Amino acid sequence: MTTATTTAPTVQTRVAELAATRITTWQKGYLRDNSRDVAALARLRRGAGRDAGALPDLWTLVDTTPLHAHDEGTRPLREEELVRAEDALHAVLTLWALHQQSRSTGMHRPAAPREPAGLGAAVRRLMPPGDIDEPIRKRLVRAGTAPDLTALSQRLRDLVVLLRRADIPLDYGLLAGQLYAWQWPGGADRVRREWGRSFHAWQPPVGPDPAPDPAAGESTTLETTLPSPDRDKDAS
C-alpha cells in the first residue's frame, strides 16, 4: 500500500492565492456597492505605484496574517520571504484598486486555458487585431526593465490606467506571484519571459461576441463615459 504525498505550496503560490482571495472578496462587495468595500478601495488606490512602507494607513488592508500561519504542509516564512511577500501584495492590491475604480464589472479575472489573463495578454488586447502598437509595447518593455519593485509598480500603474479605460481585466493573483518572484535573483528574467509568452499567446476571439451578462451590468470603455464626480462612488 502506498501513501499519497502532497507537495507543500510554494511561497509564490501562497502569495498568489492570498492576493486572489482578498481581491475577490473586495471585488464582490464593491460591485454590490457595499460602502465598506468602496471605502477600502479608495484607501488602497492611494498606494498605487508607491512604496509599501510609505502608507502605514494601508497596513491593516494589506493583511499578510495567513502567511504567518503554520498549517499542516506549510512552514513559517523567513523574514526576507515575508518582506518580499508584503511588498508584492501591497503593489498588486493597490494596482487592482486603481484598475477597478468606476468599473461596473470585475477587473480581476483569473486566467482560463483558452483565455490568458496575464499582463502580456492584457497589454496585447489594447492593440488592434493583427497589429502592434509600438508606444504600448514599449510601455510593457519599460515595465519589464524596471530596476526595482517600486519603479516596476509605477510603470505598471501607467499600464493599469490604460487597461481600466478599455475595460480589460487582469489576473491579479497571477501578477502577485510574479511580483514576489521578481524580487529574487533571476526572478525578473523569468517573469519577463512569462509576460512575453502571455503577450504572444493571446488571440482575438473568433466569431460573434458573447452575449452580455445581465447580472454584470453595463461596462464603460472610454474615460469620457465615466460617471461625473457628484455621482461617482469612487469620487473620494
From TrEMBL:
InterPro entries: CRISPR-assoc_prot_Cse2 (IPR013382), Cse2_sf (IPR038287). Residues 200-236 are annotated as: Disordered. Pfam families: CRISPR_Cse2. It comes from the Bacteria. Residues 218-227 have a biased composition (Polar residues). This is Type I-E CRISPR-associated protein Cse2/CasB. It comes from Streptomyces fructofermentans.
